Amino acid sequence: MRAFIFGFVPFLCVTIFARWFYVCKVHQLCGEQPVIEDVIKERPTTLDLSDEDTGNIVLEKYEEFAFQKGSGKPDMSKNNEVFIDEVAKYLKKEPTKNLSITGQYLESEKNIKQGYYENLGQARANEVRELLLDKGIPEDRFAIDYDIVVNENLTEPIIFEVFKNNGNEVTTGKTGKPNTNDDPPLVRESFTFTNMTYSDANFAYNSDVFRPGEPFKLYADSVRVFLSKNPSKILTIIGHTDFVGSDEYNDDLGKRRAESAKAYFNGLGVSTTINTVSMGKRQPVAKNDTDQGRQKNRRVNIKIE
Length: 305
Description:
The chain is about 30% helix and about 20% strand. It is α/β, with parallel strands linked by helices. The chain has 2 domains: about 35-190, CATH 3.30.1330.60; about 195-305, CATH 3.30.1330.60. The strands form 3 sheets. Strands 2-1-5-3-4 form a 5-stranded mixed sheet. A 4-stranded mixed sheet has the order 8-11-9-10. A two-stranded antiparallel sheet has the order 6-7. Strand 1 and strand 2 form a beta hairpin. The radius of gyration is 28 Å and the shape is globular. Mean pLDDT is about 85; it is low at about 10-30, about 30-40 and about 170-180.
């Protein structure tokens, strides 16, 4: 037993020394260690609320909203929460003003859908709208828009603009330049359950053949359930086009697209009254001088009334 102890003690000392040498000398893990902290990148304080009609800045120098890539939900900071509170206060103080919320998304996010929404820009704008709805702002005081960012630098995920409550129409657009007599006022879209809009992604170019995507299918099924419980409601589908072609041609194309969407709802078993209307190219939501603008204008608007 004594021999064992005398043999074990040197072995233990050698083991302890070896361990100390490996940890402290080789890996330099002994002594006071630096504290590793998560570094949170500061958000730029460039967020503002502008008045589209006057060009004035109502609120400024707030932190930009932030989103994880591929997500529609904002990572809210305390400063973002303060901004939402201030926007709500302003809208309550100015009942003649509505709020446009534009959600932006990256080129690399263009195939990501969320719920009823065809792109993350719409989904992000809606998530922010929900924050303001919780503050008591009525749903009919909002308009939703979206833009795609061609690079990978999403510096302004959400853009806020107030405008006159005049039937959701504007006379200037984001460039601040007046429309000409040949350029009708831009129409604001709501993107709500009872007033939803889908772009021509559901149609081939210059075609009335309806090819509904997953967001539309999800929305249409929810509409079917809603109408089955509210049979007195009426569904109105409005077809819109871009400005390419004559008035007569676009009126006809818009009507045919609305009829194709109606046929889809009928195929789901919707038996309520469905009206179809064509506005042709008379109610653009964007300028027709870019591919993206024309793509926004080719759309069907679905209203539950």
